[in-house]
Amino acid sequence: MKIGVFDSGIGGLSVARAIEKALPEHEMIFVNDAEHVPYGSKKPDEILGYVVPILQKLVDGGCQVIVIACNTVTTTLITELRAHISVPLVAVEPMVKPAAEQTRTGVIAVCATPATLASQRYGQLKAEYAKDITVVEPDCGDWAFMIEHQQVDERAIQARIQEVLDKRADVIVLACTHYHWIEELIKRLAKDRADIIQPEQALIRQLKRVLTQLA
Ligand code: DGL
Question: Global pTM?
Answer without folding.
Answer: 0.97
